[in-house]
Specification:
mainly beta; 7-stranded mixed beta sheet; globular
Length: 122
């Protein structure tokens, strides 16, 4: 596994968490992002760093509350003002992220995925 998430946990509504995704330098040229999946729901993109466009993407539901960033060895997601609907398994991904201008990885969907870290907001 080349993407390793950490930082999840249980927190009360209004609280904060910071997720980290450690990766090797090999991923530095790839678009990277955070996705989440709640029980019974489809996986959704939360926030991403789009390298070639030098921009960040945020889902409308997290704008103003979450901040995505990266350095040479990790992708981060700072989450504030957490709500119960933010609960779910959070996954780090690198690769195509559904965007034609992002280089793809060899996986079936063009992405590499971590195993996830659980976030529970009550």
């Amino acid at each position: 596994v080349q993407l390793v998430e950490s930082g999840g946990g249980s927190v009360q509504a209004g609280g904060s968490l910071r997720l980290s995704c450690a990766y090797s330098g090999y991923y530095s040229r790839y678009c990277m992002g955070w996705f989440r999946q709640a029980p019974g729901k489809e996986r959704e993109e939360v926030a991403s760093v789009i390298t070639r466009a030098d921009m960040s993407y945020y889902a409308d539901s997290v704008k103003g509350r979450f901040t995505v960033s990266r350095d040479s060895g990790a992708l981060y997601l700072q989450m504030t003002s957490l709500k119960p609907e933010d609960s779910g398994m959070y996954y780090c991904a690198a690769g195509r992220l559904g965007r034609n201008h992002c280089p793809r990885r060899p996986g079936a969907d063009g992405n590499d995925w971590g195993k996830g870290t659980q976030v529970t907001v009550s």
